[in-house]
Amino acid sequence: MRETLQIPESLVRLLRAAHTVVAFTGAGISAESGVPTFRDAQTGLWARYDPRDLATPQAFMRNPKLVWDWYEWRRSLVEQAQPNPGHRALAVMEGLVPEMAVVTQNVDGLHQRAGSQRVIELHGRLGRYRCFDCGRPVRREEAAPPGPEGVPRCPHCGGLIRPDVVWFNEPLPQDALEQASAWMRKADVVLIVGTSAQVWPAAGLPLEAKRAGAVLVEVNPQPSQLAPVVDFALRGPAGQWLPALVTATWPEAASAFA
Hints:
This protein is α/β, with parallel strands linked by helices. Helices cover 33% and strands 17% of the residues. The protein folds into two domains: 163 residues, 3-Layer(aba) Sandwich (Rossmann fold), CATH 3.40.50; 83 residues, 2-Layer Sandwich (SIR2/SIRT2 'Small Domain'), CATH 3.30.1600.10. Helix 5 packs parallel to helix 9 and helix 7 packs parallel to helix 8. The chain starts with 8 loop residues before the first helix and ends in a 9-residue tail after the last helix.
């Protein structure tokens, strides 16, 4: 399948010459691993709930056990998933360019499991926890037993433990946002992978790169909100296009996908 994909020679030349590459990834790349997107996770027992009723601080205060159980169910799905060729291609690329970072909106940790070393998580991570009250990070094994709410408690202050993800009505973590912005401003090439670019402020990051002179490459089956400003559009799944892009640019890396 990869042999039939035509990578523009001008893009190959740009990537070969690039010093700094940034991959900006969204739910689409992990959907190829069987991880449901945020809204696709509303199935089975959860079909009657709107995601916004399960992903806000207000929802957690109103019914902490319901929100906790939904996120634990999502975490179990992620634990069963495996990185796909798209994730692996980005990890391989990191070893082929002088500087590279992955800026992701995903909370599944699949980039790290694929081997990417420099991953900036804008929306947190399933499987990490922190206290709802004092904000301190808490390892699951050190959490105090659940109280009457049915949710583990913070060993430091006794508050309820929550998943370390960004909910609606919450700001992105400032340090992650600043790191992502700095990488975008120095990028030569930005790969926009598997995102509709509808969630702000994250979706504005590639525009920072564009203003600083970066080449934008969209890898997605459908045009995103950023499609009007991208320089190259590779229409199709990341699991096909990213390995093809790596092997076309660095033929010596082809064995990584054999």
